[in-house]
Structures are given as C-alpha cells and as structure tokens.
Design a protein that fits this description.
The protein is an alpha+beta fold and 292 residues long. The protein contains eight helices and eleven strands. It has a six-stranded antiparallel β-sheet with strand order 7-8-9-10-6-11. A five-stranded antiparallel β-sheet has the order 3-2-4-1-5. A hairpin with a 2-residue loop joins strand 2 and strand 3.
C-alpha cells in the first residue's frame, strides 16, 4: 500500500507524453457523436425518474441547518430565491422557503404502505403538508419496475476483444495504435475514449487487457495477450453508435497488430436499450446514472 499515490490527469499526460507522438492520426475512425447543446445550470433537483420525491412549501423562511437536523433518512433539497439546491452543501442558502425530500428507487422496492409511512413521518417532523411526485400506489409500482430494471441490466457491459497471435502484442506497437485512434491513457492506467460532455459517464469506452496486471504502464510496455474494448451500455449515451465506433477501433488495431476480433455479445446493446425504454429511460441520462 505504500506504493499507492494520487496521480493527476496532468501527470498522466506527462508520463504518456514521454513516449512521443503517435505515428498517424486515425481519430476519424471513432467519428463524432450527436451530443445536444448543453446549458450550464446552478440549480440542483432530484430526478423523479430515479427517486420518489416529497415537496412542501414552508410557512416562511427556515434555517437550512435546522431543517436538516429535524429529519433524517432522506436526501434534502431547499429553494431560496427561486433556486433549488442541496440543503447541505458548501453553497447552500442559509434559509429556504420550500423543501424536497428524496428517496431513491435504487434503495427499494418500496410498497405503497412504506411510501405512505415516509410521507406521514416527514409531515409529522416538519408540521407541513408534502406532495409526492407519484401517489403511493403509483410510486410503489414504479419502484417495482425499477427493481426489475436493475435485475435486467445486471449484465450490461459491451465487450469486444482483439485476441493476439501466439507471440502477443508488443507494447510499443499497441501503445502507438491506441494513441493513433485518439484514445487517452490515464484513469485506472487504461486507455479511454473520453466523454467531452456531462451526458453519461466519464468515458465512452475503455481498453484494458486480460494479461496481468490488466492495465498498461508507459514505463513498462509489456507484451499482452489481448486488448479488451468495453463500455457500460446503460450508462453510455448513444450506445449503438459507441459500439460501432468501438468495433471500428478494434478492427483498426487488428490491421495494425494482427490477431482476431471477437464480439462477446453483439445483442447486448439492443437488449439493454429495450429494457431501459420499458422503464421510460434512455442510456446515459441522469436517472440511469443514479440507478445503475
């Protein structure tokens, strides 16, 4: 454990940069994704697709710290001057005029009677009337739907493996091929197609190896038995396009390095997208990131 330390992204780029520039620019192989325009916001609200939410107007401005102490067991949000944010945070307002209590469906499934008890307990603690985002019966039904979704999405990783010939892939060769694609080495000592937006997870897909230790170090470019390309279908926006880009990336590396491309489960994207759609969700959206 004494050898562990925190490495910044700047330090990672400096380490990788010592190996020089890639031999060619093949970034066009990945292409671009149709991300919608994003507008900055300083407001934070619970996502009602992911959580059952109780909302109440307060009789007047009340201290955020006191409201937090009065009741436990829920994530709390407060409104001040028309802006919602976390009740307890570094920039939380000192007083708020409205309150939201959040109960994640991921902590369920909840029954209708359990949701009713949560509502009554909150009303008793704060002496105000709360309005639920869904009625008790409807909330319980959605909670059960989410529980089923979590089970359906247990195996949601899309994987394509480039298996090396018997002699393996030499370190300098695969490092150059992955860099040529525009993949960035860094987090977890793996290569990533990084997500430039706040929609979905931090990476669109990643590359690792089954050869011990499972990751890559620029100071020790060892020969590996394969390159494993993968991503979380549920947490990744445009998973069909990402899968196609990942396959093109694996095929590009195959042309450079040799080996055999193996698709582990080509139907995983369609299966997970369909499961999410049944619950009214799309891959990479905020509610999915909270639930899965």
């Amino acid at each position: 454990m004494d050898n562990l330390y925190i490495s910044t992204s700047v330090h990672a780029r400096e380490r990788a940069g010592k190996l020089g520039e890639p031999s060619e620019d093949a970034r066009h192989i990945l292409g671009e994704l149709p991300f919608p325009p994003q507008e900055p916001t300083n407001e934070y609200l619970p996502d009602e697709k992911a959580s059952w939410v109780l909302t109440a107007e307060l009789p007047g401005p009340m201290a955020s710290a006191k409201l937090n102490e009065m009741f436990s067991g829920a994530c709390k949000y407060g409104r001040d001057a028309g802006r919602w944010t976390f009740l307890v945070s570094s920039d939380a307002p000192k007083t708020v005029t409205a309150l939201k209590l959040e109960y994640s469906y991921a902590d369920g499934p909840y029954t209708a009677s359990e949701l009713k008890k949560l509502s009554l307990a909150a009303a008793e603690a704060y002496k105000v009337e709360f309005t639920p985002s869904l009625g008790f019966v409807e909330g319980a039904a959605h909670s059960a739907e989410v529980a089923h979704l979590i089970e359906e999405c247990e195996d949601r990783c899309a994987t394509i493996t480039l298996v090396a010939p018997p002699e393996g892939f030499p370190g300098p060769a695969y490092w150059d091929a992955l860099n040529s694609l525009g993949l960035e080495w860094g987090d977890m000592d793996c290569f990533h197609w990084n997500n430039p937006t706040d929609l979905g997870g931090d990476q669109l897909f990643s590359v690792q190896t089954n050869t011990e230790p499972g990751y890559f170090l620029p100071e020790q470019l060892t020969t590996v038995e394969d390159l494993v390309f993968n991503f979380d279908v549920a947490r990744t926006p445009f998973p069909d396009l990402v899968y196609a880009a990942m396959l093109r990336a694996a095929q590009y590396c195959q042309k450079r390095l040799g080996g055999t491309v193996q698709e582990e489960d080509p139907e995983v994207v369609a299966r997970i997208v369909a499961a999410l759609a049944e619950a009214g969700l799309t891959p990479g959206e905020s509610a999915v990131l909270q639930l899965l």
